[in-house]
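The pair is quoted verbatim below.
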Amino acid sequence: MKTRNKTLGYLVPVFALCVFMLIIYGAYVPHKPAEIQRVVCIKFKAGTTNEDVEKHLRDFAIMKNAVKDVVAYSAGHVQKSGVDENQFDVIHYLTFRTKEGAQQYAANSDRKAFVKTNQANWDNVLEMNSNIEK
C-alpha cells in the first residue's frame, strides 16, 4: 500500500503541471488570424411576415454551423436611417480564416439548400467578400 501512495504522490503533481502547461500553451500560441469577411444583405418581399424573417435568421445561424471555416458569425436587422430606408432588411456577417474557406462556403450544399428554401421570400440579395485589414 505504501508504494501505491508514493506513486500517487508523484503522479498528482506531474499531472497538475502538465495541465498547467497545456493551459499556458493554449493561451500564448498565436492562432492564424481571420482574412475574409462576407456580408450577406437581404431584402424580403412585401408581405413576408415577421415570423418568416425570424425563421430565416434562425435557419441561417444553423446553416452556417455546417461550414467548418466560419470563425465568427453575427446578424441583425437593418436600422432604418433615411435615404436608403428600404434597401435591405437583414444583414449577416461571416468571418473566414482563409479565402478558400469563403469559397467553400459559397459552394456548400447546406448553403445551397438554404437559398433554395428561402429565396421565394427574398426581393433582393447582396453578397460580397472583403479582406480584413489589420
